[in-house]
Amino acid sequence: MDFIKNPAQIEDRSMEIIAPYLSEMDLSFEEKKIFSRIIHAAGDVDYAPIIKISPAAIDAAKAAILRGENIFTDVEMVRTGINKRTLKKFGGEIFCKVAEEDAKELAARENITRSMAAMRLFGKKLNGAIVAIGNAPTALFEVLRLVREEKIFPAVIIGVPVGFVGAADSKAELAAQNKIPFITVSGTKGGSSIAVAAVNAIMYLLDNSRN
Length: 211
What we know:
Largest sheet: 6 strands, mixed
Strand content: 5-15%
Number of strands: 6
Mean pLDDT: 95
CATH topology: Rossmann fold
Radius of gyration: 17 Å
Number of helices: 10
Oligomer: single chain
Order of helices and strands: HHEHEHHEHHEHEHEH
Shape: globular
CATH class: Alpha Beta
CATH superfamily: Cobalamin biosynthesis CobH/CbiC, precorrin-8X methylmutase
Distance between the termini: 32 Å
Strand order of the largest sheet: 1-6-5-4-2-3
Low-confidence stretches: none
């Protein structure tokens, strides 16, 4: 069987296949880039109508990256997938506390998830930063609580937790608020690869060298 072997050609062909599914949507050039990478990561064109990007989200995320702000994630899979070399060019780092002892201790003490505990421990460090949540609805609920009750304001929240318990509700709450720019997907779909795709797509709008 003959098949495409060159990575760049594979990506280009993938984007060609995705493009018709976005052609009838009223999207900016930058929105199309993010939509395309999310769909590519999922291998699922049914994502097209459920991706939601608030009006200020892309500019807020790009500005945060250019300022050298950090990215805070709910799980190691998100932290691992984000292009660290590209982010480092701008001065930012990626942090995840889910496996650290203080998160484990707080989670056990409060009877909450470790991802939720991690966001609580990040606290004021989230101010002005990028929050990327791909797995845990509880982490997204906690970040929204921090915004609401403790006046902690990330630059942007990329909230795409996946699953059947709390995921759709947490993302609906994210989309309903108007304090923080956001990128999300409706319903139960999502996941770490979707959060990674969104973050990397934004970075590649600023630097597409991939090295």
